[in-house]
Design brief:
Structural class: mainly alpha
Low-confidence stretches: none
Mean pLDDT: 80
Strand order of the largest sheet: 1-2
Distance between the termini: 110 Å
Largest sheet: 2 strands, parallel
Number of strands: 2
Order of helices and strands: HEHHHHE
Helix content: 40-55%
Length: about 140
Amino acid sequence: MSFLTEIRPPNPPDQSVDTVRDRLVRRSRRLALWLPAIIAAMIAAAGLAVIAEQQTARHPPPAIRDIAPPTSEHPALIDLNSGTAAELATLPGIGVSRAEAIVLLRAEKPFKSLADLVDRGILRPSEAQSISELATVYVKSD
């Protein structure tokens, strides 16, 4: 008996036609995967912009004013960077313990403005506003 062997070429791979619709479906699926991340990034950027705006509004630049000689109506301003604890304690709302805290904190880093009292947690913004006519911060210009 003789056996015949038939040799056939391999079956060609299934080649489906790549239509425009198929490509659009694939692209839309990829976009759907990235869309939540894109939206989250946009929300985060908007949130950071709002925070930056609030910080800018909260800390206006320090006012530069001419210094007039002290009078009975306008007493001498007390400098937060050089005033003694006793002088600082005379300011409304400061007291002895806050005056000592100011002296300790300015030894670490001198104050740049009255807003530093708020930033470092010594006063609330309303308290810093109430002493703004009686206290100041002299900053050395380089």
